[in-house]
Specification:
Blueprint lengths: L17 H9 L3 H9 L7 E2 L5 H4 E2 L10 E6 L5 E9 L4 E10 L4 H9 L5 E4 L14 H7 L3 E4 L4 H14 L2 E4 L3 H9 L1 E7 L2 E6 L5 H11 L15 H9 L8
Parallel strand pairs: 2-8, 3-6, 5-8, 6-7
Antiparallel strand pairs: 1-9, 3-4, 4-5, 9-10
Helix pairs in contact: 6-8
């Protein structure tokens, strides 16, 4: 028995206008767009952020004092990473201006280094509230006891990737060229295809992604707690007010 397959995309159907196609396309992350719009089978693997680095790379400059700041924090024994961001509210642009990237060190050493970036709030992997695989301790509480102001992050992976993609594409997320480890991870951050009993599976490669995760925590949660470098949180009420008053679209 012979078979015939005709690949059809949105451009082949007359009832979907060009503006409608563009609007629909914008709703999907880059790695899904060809599959959705053109019917290309089994797409999904490849770079997660398909945005030219030249679009969002900027040379370092002095962050204005009136830009609120925060950081995203991803913890682990092999690698602990943090990325700091500042928000230019006039243009709704977030600048990633510093990073921390070390492994095989105790929490005290990481905490000392993080505090060196300023007494700022941070959003941490919510899994840190569980047991540390190394010694069973609660890392979130341990880092808080070491003086860090931390809040559990929203760890919605696809929502976070989409939020970052939209900012990168629209020019509302910039990264200092000095964040070399961030760019190294950015270039490796990808999806791959694998086969299991249920068929083809596309998944994110969970290695060399600590700063990518920290960036998601910052964008999805950390910026709602952002404040000026010389400002401190007066009370738990202030932190809770920041969470409740966050804009439902931007999260901060």
């Amino acid at each position: 028995m012979s078979r015939y397959m005709q690949q059809i995309g949105w451009g082949d159907v007359p009832h979907i206008s060009k503006p409608d196609q563009e609007e629909m396309l914008a709703a999907y992350p880059p790695h899904q767009r060809a599959a959705r719009a053109q019917g290309v089978p089994m797409l999904g693997a490849g770079a997660i952020y398909q945005v030219d680095e030249a679009v969002f790379t900027v040379e370092p400059f002095r962050i204005p004092d009136w830009w609120p700041r925060a950081y995203g924090f991803d913890v682990g024994w092999k690698r602990t990473a943090a990325v700091w961001g500042a928000h230019d509210r006039d243009t709704d642009t977030i600048y990633l201006y510093a990073e921390y990237y070390q492994g095989h060190r105790p929490p005290q050493m990481h905490a000392d280094a993080i505090r060196g970036g300023g007494e700022l709030p941070g959003a941490i992997d919510p899994a840190s509230a569980g047991s540390n695989q190394k010694d069973g301790s609660n890392l979130l509480e341990e880092y808080r006891q070491l003086g860090l102001e931390l809040y559990p992050a929203d760890n919605s992976v696809e929502a976070g990737i989409t939020a970052i993609t939209r900012r990168l594409e629209s020019g509302r997320l910039k990264v200092f060229a000095s964040c070399r480890n961030w760019f190294s991870e950015f270039r490796l951050y990808r999806r791959v295809e694998s086969q299991n009993e249920r068929g083809l599976h596309v998944h994110i490669v969970k290695e060399n992604d600590h700063l990518m995760d920290a960036t998601r925590y910052l964008i999805m949660s950390g910026m709602r707690y952002a404040r000026f470098g010389n400002e401190s949180a007066d009370s738990d009420y202030q932190a809770e007010h920041a969470r409740r008053s966050a804009d439902r679209h931007t999260g901060y």
